Queue: 4 jobs
Job 1
Amino acid sequence: MRRVGRAWVCVVLLATGIVPAAHALPTNLTSRSFAAGSVNNCVITASDTVRCWGFNDNGQNITPEGAKSAVAVTVGNAHVCALTNVGAVVCWGANESSQTDVPTDLGSVKAIDAGDRHTCALTNGGAVRCWGLNDAGQTNVPTSLENVESISAGGATTCAISSGVVVCWGDNSEGQATPGLLGASAVAVSVGGLHACALLTDSSVRCWGNNDDGQATVPSGISALGISAGDSHTCAVTTSGTVKCWGNNMYQQSNVPTDVASPVIVVTGAAHTCVSTSAGTVRCWGDNEDGVGQPTLPDAPTLTSITPRDASVQVSWQASDFDGGSPVTGYFARASSNQTCNAPASATTCTITGLKNGTAVTVSVSSVNAVGTGAAVTSTSVTPSVQLLAPSAPTGVVALPAAGSATVIWTAPKPGAGVTITGYTVTVQPGATSVSCKASPCAVSGLTNGVAYAFAVAAQSNAGVGAAAIAYATPNSFTVAASSQTIKANTIATFTVSGAPEGAVVMLTGAATGKTTVGRSGIASISAVVAKSGVVTAAATVAKVAYKATVNVWVPVVKVPTSGSVAKPVTTAVSAARPGATATLVSDSGVTMTQTVASSGAATLTFTPTSKGSVTVRINVDGVDIVTTTVNVK
């Protein structure tokens, strides 16, 4: 038998076994977001909207607009009520006893519960208000009731917990309104058809009232976290993480499936039971005559964007709030011109091709589950067309440093169909300054020597500004310096080049030859043999930008007597030396003398040895020993 209102009707079972159905629900499912009624169930979806399924003879599955932003839902025999996030109550469905006529002076509410044909609310002030059918006094709230913590509305009986004590009123034909002494404070109460149960602080469960089917006989050893009283059966979530049911089992509503895992809450209907799990799913079993446990079509997804392309459109969406009690297996999109695309359940976008450029279309998107294709959401009108895509980034970007400036060069990107490049923007960091140029190369001035800059180059076009490519440079004067201005003939000197662009090949010519490749620092060294005085030129050319610098090196030539006997005084001649340099003569007889090199590069050093015979003479120019020789003085 199934209870409808307060009448009992006979139902003929056509099958002895009822297979429990698994329903996938939003992962944010909480203890207040799922409810079971006599013959239908409701959930609060991820968008805080109430979604119901099952019997719909009074429109109880059609959620009104005002039930959005719901934080709690409750289901009666044929009506539904939701509590919104602002403390308002919205009810719909059957109203033959005014059970959905929410009092206009109700005020702010923190909890609601629906009975058979009446509804009760717990206000934020701790008061209880009930409305609807009152044939047994179920809406006559005791005037002395205060400090209420929770409420439960059953068939024609209502109970509340006040300071840990259960207080009931209404139909007491089976003693269901007389809880008696429970032995401990109550933390939850649930009223069924003709019985009621309480969860106590010690996790024990006490039931009272009608016990024709054993629904008030609590199994020994029950330690519970939550309870729910149905029409003539009772269920609990135990502290060991299981679900236990007892009482009427005509529809196997008390036979808990063995694979129910990690239950969070249990709710009981007239002759069915549902459990929400920590995984965000709901399992229902028992009477399914009115589709209480039957999956239905999914809601429509939410469109997030629709983008026209060349002979196509790309549509994007968010998953449906409610999957119909069966996991979404894919999505189906159709253009108003009948072209379609399909996408898997993991996708959030697809592209419909084969459209005609210049012809506007709308696109509808539906979710698909095992039941079928659900309701569609339709986009606004869009018109496919050849898309002008902004240019890609230039390639081969190089920044060529100079004194207080840089020259930026690049290879232009190839624009797409219909796209015209109108110029380029070079953005300089630090400083965030921009320079516009028609084409490569592009000169950037006003920079500070020694500061490392980044130069981002992007093409401007009738399709917008394209992607940027970056090069780096540190502005400086291009210079070359020798490790020594005066060098002994046929020895190695090091020439340091500064201010060259990265990757440039620098060539030395003139008095020294060699080459090297410059690194990112802009500094490179070349070691070369110097044979004679002259000019050393360092040069590089990058993308037709020429770099050139020179440095003088001197290789002094010293002429001294080299054979026979030398008469006093001894004369040493220096030539090809750096003008202004100091030439020094040192002899082993203790004579030291200096001479400044003339502008001609010459200097003459003359000394008179104090004695005849062999004398060693050393000539030094600019601190570099040039010649050491021995002469025989007459």
Job 2
Amino acid sequence: MSESELPRWSLEGIYPSVDSVEFDRDIKRLYDIVSEIESNGKDPDYSLKRLLSLNDLGEAYVSNLMAYTEALLSTDTSNNAYLKAFSRAEDVAMDYLSAQDIIVENVARREGEFGSPDLEEYALTLKEIMEKSRHQMSLEEERLAKEMLKVSSSAWSRLQSSITSSIEKDGKTLNELRALAFSEDRSVRENAFRCEIEILKEHEIALSSALNGVKGTVLILEKRRKWPSPLDRSLSDSRISKESFEALLEALEESISMFSRYFHRKAELLGLERLDFYDLFAPVGKSGREYTFDEAMDIVEASYYGFSKETGDFIKRARENNWIDAEMRKGKSGGAYDTYFPLKRESRIFLNFDGSFDSLFTLAHELGHAYHDSVVSELPLSWQRYPMTLAETASIFGENLLFESLIGTLSDDQRLRVIESYIQSASQVCIDILSRYYFEKEVFERRSEGELTPGELNEIMVRSQERAYGDELGEKHPYMWAVKSHYYAEDFSFYNYPYAFGELFALGLFSLRESSDDFPSLYKRVLSLTGRMDAVELSKSVGLNIEDKEFWKRGLSVIDKYIKELEK
């Protein structure tokens, strides 16, 4: 596939450049918001609605500026101009976050005013402010903590991103080596795996230092803020109850035997006794074609049109307006994401397109996120913020739309290929995510006692993979902790279970199709409520109970149906 076929996104509609008048203007506007909060935010008689409005407006400017500079950096991690712009945005964002603490302290003392009719749209915001106030240090301590984050966990996170996006072996970047995991040739997959392990080992000291730095910072701050654990803070930020998380976790652990049947069957189809880590993404079946980017977009767009004209029109709009950066190139970070610019009410899609089936599903996934953004963009700012758990609903839903549109149009060989790819993706979201949860949980437990060496991190990772994958996986990947940027996110620990939540919640939503007269409208309503309700309330509003393990098992049963077909 030639590089000319792959688009680079256009960010000029967000800001013309990092040194543009528009970028400088929004930096100044955010400083003005900070100044107003600092001048009036401690006044107990200052308008409560105005404070909440400043809270929303400040978050919108922070999101816009940070999303823009992070988007630039992710495509060119060593660009000095982008680094300086990111630093400028981060500086004012930290000032705003400190000012936001003033709002929290003021609002928490005025609970008696919460019933005012003009504050109705802020019901969830007020509930979350009260929760935050119970875990907030003094204003001076919070300000110091935020200032220190710029040179601690945030810097460590940038170091990990910079290293993993720039290192290479035999002329191939780490991203390109990892993409070879999808090769039909086992020797190619294994060689790429060995090269990946080799270059990660060369940088293990820096990467382990970064991980220790991030996790150490989180532990100190969560303890000072009186959170029982980083997981408790994560669940609160995710707007899910402990009961719903435990129900999900129990269902995932019970699914290990189900996915073990899949791993065993995949090994048989590949002519192996059992899989090694570098076999997990190996294609099965004879449909070995590659897709051009335009072909992939045609297929994804058609799948969304098959669901509703509105969703299809949105995908077409994203495509025509050059919202997607698909090219794999040196200096570009790995992975894929959707980012939203609230001041412009637009999204952008970042991925490393390699022409595989997996790339099709990645496109469908990230465009699902972007559609979700478009739904909430019509709402007040206070209703546009939704948690990671509910964020994954639309993305996984998009993957399922693609899967369903493909499956009925394929030959037997192609059907085998697509079904296996679908289950493989589900296994990553359920089983690999489970291993990542086990890993992060043990890292936090042991990091509280001191720094962990690269060897110890490797041991924890291998043990976590053994626990989740069982006996069906031979050689493990000891350095997965080094390549997953989610582990280095100070502001959201346990950036793993939301994917399993989204996968199975989306499948649970799918189960409502038969009983709904207008399912696309119901689906859009669910997305529109993700910023207004917590996950338990939202699920109950459509007749679902996420605190019941049986709900999660319903979604797993859909995956099991295709595993059984694969076993035939």
Job 3
Amino acid sequence: MLEEESEIWQKETMSICPECMKRIPAVIKEVPGEDLVIMQKTCDEHGPFEDIIATDKELYIRSQVHTKDGSPDAHPQREIKKGCPHDCGICPNHKSAPSCIMVDLTNKCNLNCPICFANANKKGVVVEWTFDEIIRIFRYYRNIEPKPPVIAMVSGGEPTLRDDLPEIIRELALMGYRQIQIATNGIRFAKDIDYYRRCIEAAYEPGTDCGIVVYLQFDGVKPETYKKTRGLDIFHYKEQIVKNAKTLLDQGVISSGICLVMTVTKDNLEEVPNVIDFAANNIEVVSGVMFQPVALCGRVTHEDIKEKRITTYDVIHQIDKETGGVLQPWGPFPSYHALMNLIAWYNSDETVEFTCNAQCGFVSFLNCRGPGPDGKMQYGGIREVIELGGGIDFSEKIWNTAKNLKKGSFFKNMLSKLTGSLGDFGNILDETVFWSKKEIIKYLFVLGGLNFIKLDQLNEPNLKSVLQALNIMFRPSWMSTRDFLVKAKNLYIGVMHFQDAYDLDVERVSRCVVHYGLIEPDTDKVVAFPFCSFNTCHRDRVERALAKARGVPLDMEETKLISH
């Protein structure tokens, strides 16, 4: 018996008590004889707690090998006193830099969604940053060292309730953010196409390299689904924003596309294939789908835990069931760390952080081939085009060489010493040497990478996907990755599960790459909180402090709640 127990996979970590939020030890382990991974923890005051972490223990355990340390902020803002997740702001324990900085522009919303983790419209006061404060927060994080975020997300509440959103977007593009995401229910974009146009066009300032992604709340296609998740049927607004996006595209207004964001509950799990089909049928303006199993915080009560818990793996199983498993193999986000960094590195010295915990999310790509004889959409998968496992490992080897390549100062120093006046020419020579070494690495990447692209698929239905995969290799850039999605009709399919007080793992928190930015009212300093720890542990306290310092009474009439 002891020998059998010693073979059970498990890891020890720290979590929190869902009742008192105190840090407590936890163990994450597989369940013998069942396809389950669970978390168990006990609070001295409130007793034991158990939650399901995964319903596919093989995939869960296999994904652990992709753990990678990142490039944490060189100037953390908090001392370690209470321990993770209570020292957020960020503390020296954090292991990753943010790839995305997120700011709630307002806590007002034009909906009252039952599953809102931000609990918008329920605070009794309005808390909004001024235009200058928003710019201050985003600029602060654009300048952090050693690795600033490349993605800026505006959220809420509902960020499109602000009339100055286009001006905010323009400033973010000028700061150098490569992608701006608007987390929205889409209602204003559906009702006001001119406002939608101005928000997209604001990102394309001359001299910038930026794109817009509409991160669109999208829970399904059935009226009853929206009545459960959002309180009323708003699907017609989702249809209209897609129509508006197509109209703007026809007029030459090009964005990085719409990402459908489905909050998945047990009540709407059956809508998963409907959401994929909707995306596929509108692929000219929809670039991806992000499935987010509901986090049990905000308006979800503690008593709902066993009835409502749905995991990343439940959603993956549902997707595989409906698509015939063509999305296998699913890769955790950090498995793409090396490849995405290489793509960014070839075009600039600025790379992106993909060093979140493997359980933060999984991704794959779905090729949309049009309706078959039965009228149903036909799908293909990434494995038909790329030998993904070998390609990922190869990218890792190349990136380990590339990331250590630095521009030297040999010729600048030598010529300055010899002549005292040719330092600038020496600097040009150093730049040339650096460029040459970079080109050699690129050549090695192309030469070796050809082994993992299935060139025998240079025919229909995989022709365009193979050509765009080759395009990424020969001309790596953010635009070539966009072309792989748009021109080859490949949908990005992701599953991203946020933590709550029941399943929170501090090791995951310490690797978070999506941070909320805000200004503390008592210190007037810009600080940041990892996404999951903010919504689980800090949001209520922080918003109460902000409301006390600067809030104004909430005028429900002013927020113009949607009622039909």
Job 4
Amino acid sequence: MGRAPFDSHATLLSYPLQHARLALIIMVGALLAQSCYTPAELRDRADRDAYALIDARRKQLFDEDSPFSLPSPTQAFGREARSAEDWTVREKVLAGAVTGVGPLNVVGALGIAAENSELVQREQEGLYRAALDLTLEQWRFGYQYDASASGGASGEINGNLGTASKGFSASVTRVLGTGAVILADVGASLFRVVSTGDGWDGITSLGLSITQPLLKGTGELVTLEPLRQSERTLVYAVRAYERFRRTYAVNVSDRVYRVQQSLDQLNNERLNFENLTTLRVRNERLAEAGELSEVQADQARQDELGSENRLVVLQGNTERQLDTFKVFLGLPVECDLFFEEGILRRLGVESDVLNQLRDDVAVEFAIAHRLDVMTSFDRVQDAVRKEAIARDALRAGLSVSAAASEVTAEGKVLQYSFNDAIWSAGVDVDLPIDLLPLRNAWRRAELTLVDTRRRYERSLDDVTVSVRDALRRARNSFKSFKIQEGAVLLSERRVRGAELSLEAGEAITRDLLEAQSSLRSSRDSATAARIAFTLDLLGLWLELELLRVDESGVFVDPDLSEDLRTRTRERATAASDLQ
């Protein structure tokens, strides 16, 4: 087949073969460009989409601006893949870059634990998976593109006749909220008979089809349910992750304070041992001078030995607790921990809300603000929708469809007249004859709805019990702390009085020994009571969903705290008016 010489005034449609080749090259090039992403680039694109969804939900639900991210693969593979500036605290310790960690407080411990905790990473990955699932559902309800290219040759074994062909096709599909499915496709095919030496001939095609269900499976309730459920599942995951962060912060605080309690008890016993040593030396000298009986000297020596033994036991327990704490933080047990001074002294032990808070107000507030209660309620709504969808599947199916397509004549690439277009229309009816599988699915959905409602109601009872118990513990531990605080003051006064009386000869050694023992015990009890009240108070704020966690540490939401005060005052005023 001859070819006309190039004419600069000729239009592109005058050369269908060249145009088809050009279109084929462009479309195949676009397809290859889309398919040439490296795994690392695809990971980055997946992370970008998932992180954007998570950050948007966290901003919407909690006004949280800190970006969410998973550890990069280089972080997961270890310090060898990264520069020293990017190493975690654990990696620096293992590499010998640092030998100790500190000064450590609750905020620092929380950051180190979050870096290495498998539990934290598992929660983060669960949240990421929920966002990844949503990106898939969003893709399914967007424009879906597909393209393919092919080529081949065939012929007779004797070589007398052979043909070669190549083709390209592309399509775009969209699912609408009504359940309609729209499909548009284009295609191009080129072929030639090899034995004749002729050039390539080609045909192209266009097609459009629409299918719309009218009874079963129509409407946004059914069609958009996968997308809707994925969006809600991400909300649940964001809530669960935030609840986990707050619970985990209380857990870390508990461990930090317990270690501090052991260190404080060790320090108290050390001071007690020093005082007993001083007393023992004094009594021995007085006994040698004949001014004190050997019995009193032996009493001081015996108490000193008892204190030394307690010191050894406490030292071992403290070291064991420190090792356990290091493992919890993900640090090697060989590293040294240095704690910030005055952690226990800075614990807040006053709460005007606690003193005035009513049980009924606390329960109502918790039910209104607890993240897990919100999710439990929303799951009831999910079950309602799923039951409605399962019931919808029992109806008859009716759908209408329409399609139109045209294929160009051989050698008439892209020359569509549409006079020869082929169209079709149809109606499909799915009669509800054998409904047993659908019937069973609907009954399961009904039972799931009943069970989900029951779980929600039980969650309200559980929250009521847990809030009342947390409030009771906080009140009791506050009273206990006040009692122990007074006991310390009394013990200190008793020691001073015993020392003065002993010097004046109005008391015996046993009086001072008992007073010092009482002081040590009171100090230990006061520290334990202070820590217990602090942790019980954190537990109460957690039960009421007042607790917040950010880079600065653990704190109470000021706006919600003020709202709780306002509700308490209003309820107290209403109660007094009724009286």
